[in-house]
Design brief:
- The termini are far apart.
- The protein has one domain: 3-Layer(aba) Sandwich (Rossmann fold).
- 47% of the residues lie in helices and 8% in strands.
- It is globular.
- The chain is built from 14 helices and six strands.
- With 367 residues, the chain is an alpha/beta fold.
- The protein has a four-stranded parallel beta sheet, sandwiched between helices. Strands 5-6 form a two-stranded parallel ribbon.
Length: 367
């Protein structure tokens, strides 16, 4: 009789165990209170080192880049330390820093919480990436599809789709389309095809819309897009301006106006594209970077606002910023690290200004 009772209890426990597991498997996953992952697409402002693994002159995996990064390692980030995307990942609690997707040392745990597909030199115009031998946005999208396939193999379709559905997608590009392509190396052909800036804006917006729709089709439900900085205030643009000898090192206002018009239309288009299922967010970096340049010396603790820390401060970037270049002693006194890219301190300031947008995204997970 005792044996019968013991057997009966064991059978009962087994039934309860199987029933609970079945119910759990049929119950939808609880809504997270933070993003499941962060996926980043774009250019050097968010490239965590993908260009280390391709043939391109646009690399920064050597000193003095990374001088103030963790363990003073040059990771391929185009600055002395961390990027805005790193600060966002840390602030949201997703991960400490964003890894590069092409890094062969990444573990499954790293992939699960998101990666950066960005490539320095890229842009929304495919020609822009070609000029720098960078990874185009189209190819970055293909890498994301490859990522999905890998994850489905490791953790299954359902969990992969759940990660993507609850992730944040961040897009940061467009500057190279103007300073490298339209007004730079690609100028003769690109300006022939698009004789005014407005027509080129339309091309870029068409490509932006296509990219966003592709992300939606892949399951993206929260997409944040960064606008353009005041491109006329970048040290390289100032230096190459023909009137710099007359006017001194001042922002090239017509170039910055191109960015303001782009940002105005972009914000409007993102609002129009938003659906009941997918939320689109616009992050303005124009004003915080302009504030750094206009008030950096007087209010924000910087000593140099229109020359880079690395090199002469004029046109050095990528391979032209190296250990043979003159490098300032304290990058935290500079807004720009090289002729194009901000310092870690400047990036952190930008992050603090756009943090309300990040908080808005986080609130959407709680509501």
């Amino acid at each position: 009789m005792d044996s019968f009772l013991v057997l009966h209890k064991l059978i009962l426990l087994l039934v309860i165990f199987l029933t609970c597991n079945y119910v759990q498997s049929q119950t939808p996953l609880a809504k997270p209170n933070k993003p499941s992952a962060i996926f980043v697409f774009g250019d050097s402002t968010v490239d965590a080192g993908n260009n280390n693994f391709i043939k391109t002159p646009m690399k920064s995996n050597f000193p003095p880049y990374g001088r103030d990064f963790i363990n003073h390692i040059p990771t391929g980030r185009f600055t002395n330390g961390r990027l805005v995307s790193d600060f966002i990942a840390s602030y949201t609690g997703v991960k400490d820093i964003m890894p590069a997707y092409l890094d062969p040392t990444l573990r499954i745990e790293d992939l699960m919480t998101g990666v950066s597909f960005a490539s320095a030199g890229s842009g929304f115009d495919p020609v822009t990436a070609t000029l720098s031998s960078a990874i185009s946005l189209e190819q970055q999208m293909e890498y994301f599809k490859e990522y999905k396939s890998k994850m489905e193999m490791f953790i299954g379709n359902e969990k992969t789709l759940d990660i993507i559905k609850n992730a944040v997608f961040m897009l940061s590009a467009g500057t190279n389309d103007f300073i490298v392509n339209y007004f730079g190396l690609g100028e003769p052909i690109t300006q022939f095809m698009y004789p005014n800036v407005t027509s080129y804006h339309m091309l870029l917006f068409q490509n932006v819309e296509q990219l966003i729709k592709k992300l939606m089709n892949e399951g993206a439900r929260k997409i944040a897009m960064v606008g353009l900085p005041p491109i006329g205030c970048l040290p390289e643009v100032i230096t190459l301006n023909k009137d710099v000898a007359i006017n001194g090192r001042k922002c090239v206002e017509p170039m910055s106006y191109v960015a303001t018009e782009y940002n105005r239309i972009l914000e409007s288009k993102l609002k129009a594209m938003q659906t009941s299922e997918t939320k689109l967010y616009y992050a303005d970096i124009y004003k915080p970077i302009l504030d750094l340049i206009q008030f950096g010396k007087t209010k924000l603790g910087f000593q140099e606002v229109n020359e880079g820390c690395c090199g002469s401060g004029y046109i050095e970037a990528a391979v032209l910023c190296n250990m043979n270049s003159a490098v300032c002693d304290d990058a935290s006194k500079y807004v720009f690290w090289d002729s194009v890219h901000p310092t870690e301190k400047a990036y952190y300031y930008v992050f603090t200004i756009i943090r309300p947008v990040v908080d808005m995204v986080l609130n959407d997970y709680k509501n």
